[in-house]
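hey so u asked for the seq, here:
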Amino acid sequence: MVQRFFDHLPEPRTIGIVGGLGPYAGYDLVRKIFRWTKAGTDQEHLPIMLHSFPGWIPERPAFLLGETRENPGEDIGGIMAQLAENGARVIGMPCNTAHSPRILNTALERLQATGLDVTFVSIIESAVKHVSALCPGSGRIGLMGTVATLRTRLYQDALEKAGLEPVLPDEEECAMVQRAISDPAFGIKAFSDPVTPRARQILLDAARRLVEVRHVDAVLLGCTEIPVAVTESVLYDTPVVDATSVLAQELIRASCPERLRLRTHYLPKG
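ran it, structure tokens below
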């Protein structure tokens, strides 16, 4: 019997994914975990659980913007606890907005109450670490995300702490990016497969203005709906950082680092 390389590796820790935030973002994360996993057979892929219960979780932006008092962190934490109790030992959440401390801290309290040894991998920390490696020392980082994510400065504060300069679209452009994500007539949340040409074009136009008008060194897609529409790793000769893809890599690293497939997927500007 031929021994395979993976026979010598430690047992991977099961990955749990908090889905439904929105549903296609959870699916997209699973798909990218598969993409970044070094595996030659079915058995060599990592164990993954996706719990997608969108009807359980109240709107995150509405809570953060003061439109409702119902904290989604309670139900998100309940899903995290379910994942942990079913065997997940590494948990990720493909929703940048839900990483606001007002939501995430409540969720993590529910997870910690299980008493189980579980690692939560932050999409914000993962993405900023990745951008810092891409632009070592300094850099202007174009940031695209929901209005709630931008107003709560989740990425701005983390980027500045890392010595990077966050650059946002102007107010009108931010509103258009939000419409591309959530407009019921054409937004990604309503039309994910396929994405409407209008939603994709709005996002491409916003990225182009960040590059051509604000002269950013990289564009960070800080909403997990956006990579469903914008799949390019380079736009206008500028690297695009997909936070969902980065989270996928970090979840693999936390589960079984030897299974992470390494490849160069950014091209230098110019």
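The chain has eleven helices and nine strands. The first strand starts at residue 15 and ends at 19.
lmk if thats what u needed
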